[in-house]
Task: structure prediction
Amino acid sequence: MKQLLAMISVSTLVVFTSAHATSWQALPDKAPAPANNPTTAAKVELGKTLYFDPRISSTGTVSCNSCHNVMEGGDDSRPNSMGVNGQTGGRGAPTVWNAAFYSTQFWDGRANTLEDQAKGPMTNPIEMGMKNHDLVMQRVRSMDGYKTMFKTAFGDSKMTIDQAAMAIAAYERTLITPDSAYDRYVKGDKKALTSQQVKGMNLFAELGCTSCHSGPAFNGQAGVKLGTPVLMKFPTFTDNSYVKKYDLASDKGRENVTGKADDNNLFRTPTLRNIAVTAPYFHNGKVVTLDEAVKVMAKTQLNIDLNASQAKNLVAFLESLTGPFPQQTMPRLPVTSGKSVVVE
Amino acid sequence: MKQLLAMISVSTLVVFTSAHATSWQALPDKAPAPANNPTTAAKVELGKTLYFDPRISSTGTVSCNSCHNVMEGGDDSRPNSMGVNGQTGGRGAPTVWNAAFYSTQFWDGRANTLEDQAKGPMTNPIEMGMKNHDLVMQRVRSMDGYKTMFKTAFGDSKMTIDQAAMAIAAYERTLITPDSAYDRYVKGDKKALTSQQVKGMNLFAELGCTSCHSGPAFNGQAGVKLGTPVLMKFPTFTDNSYVKKYDLASDKGRENVTGKADDNNLFRTPTLRNIAVTAPYFHNGKVVTLDEAVKVMAKTQLNIDLNASQAKNLVAFLESLTGPFPQQTMPRLPVTSGKSVVVE
Result:
């Protein structure tokens, strides 16, 4: 464990939980919201509408939901995401479900808040591809339905990009899954998990997975101040065949953000909530199955070779972290009567 | 009028309504379903799930809903639709709302039924891009959730592409908008339309728009036997500036299907239901506003130059054909636990 800690960048906060002292925590029923953006029904409704609106991408084909599909596991089932005009980047889309429980956003923690994150993809040329946020809001402002929704949500007629981001973030804070089998087990329903899942749960702590994947969201970020990246070197142990096989070391991770060599291969510890429904795995999506993913993790992060039975038990436990997903109504996207909104 | 009729291909059925005898009809509260595919709740639920599932496209990014977005006007706000890898074709996506009231499907009527239509885009290389329907169903079969849904909907475990198409068609038959301002007006609520809309409605009949756009769906296809294309030459009158300006004559329309020169430029008469929320206009989406679209129609189909006031009144009437759209819940897309579904 000392070795692990030594490899972590000094700029990084590490939440360390000993296997023996593991305290299992259920997910809160409500996600925390920052003081300057309390969650309201009007903001959530506006945010959901914007989240599903592909017309705020250059081609009119990519919405937030395209890559972070809430009807799936909050991701897109792809190794890397696909933006406008079929372009792809090098990383997979992290799930939006329970993203509210992160202390920073993106694989490299480059955005402090959900509000900050929401604006990024809109103007990323290989994601939603809009030239700038003014053009995004120009499209939004052209639709009367949005005017009313912004007014209701924010009490003024400004319709700014920051308001749009606040609304999207407010919606995302409703995308949580606090009633999984694991949660019910932790709250006292001892029948909620199978005996195999309980075995996996104990193993998860014994092996030291909880060193990073701790707390209610299994991301080590509970109680961490918003804006503080909780990062880990991945891969930590490189003397194994996985690193080459799955190309695990070529993405510089946090180093791309800070420019510091010390930050090479540092990535945000991802939540394990809904991990069974968000294949393929890791920042580059190169690992297709969860069974393989836990073996890769054990080897590259803990230098442990799992046997088949251990891997199966861990997977069974991780499956207990799935859903249930709240039923949602579809938003109705506003229009400009009789006029094209998407003009490339 | 004689001139119009003379230009119509003999292979085409034409429903002709004199302006003076126009009978205004409300949309039925239920769409007709073929005897071999009665609409059931289980089929509709399965169909909705498949309709929203992007994983049955090669890239995992394009679902039926991508181009026929039911959260919008049932289309995609684009001049031409965009399929996998950013590819585009030459035509715009017709709205799925009220598609159940067509006697054939596609702009050129090349599919007889909604069931036939549903299968086309899946294997079209520039739409959903799957190599064949077996591969589509291989992905669907890999997900346990779908197994249950097919079993419930069809009572067997076959999971065929035809069953998938039947389910999608069943869902689409629920996508109707029978309670527009126009419908309420026709049913007796004389306050449902503004005086301008009533002016536009009368003008619509007087000018002869009802020659083609007749019946409850304004597509001349009420009572027409399923599988019978109702087509019209567009443009009929070519001696005007619109044909060149909007490139109206280069798409051969029905001729592409039959190979017959007589079928050149023949297109299915589209519904006018929700036309105000489905800009841009016509098969090629070259006309950006509804105001311009009615002028183009009057000139190219009736050889009439509308003045500004006439166009405005017609647009006001057409706006009365919008929605309301039933609220829908989002489907939850099945998964294969811990395994990638999309493998290109």
Confidence is low (pLDDT under 50) at residues 1-20 of chain B. The CA atoms of residues 110 and 257 of chain B lie 7 Å apart. The beta strands of chain B are 231-233, 266-268.
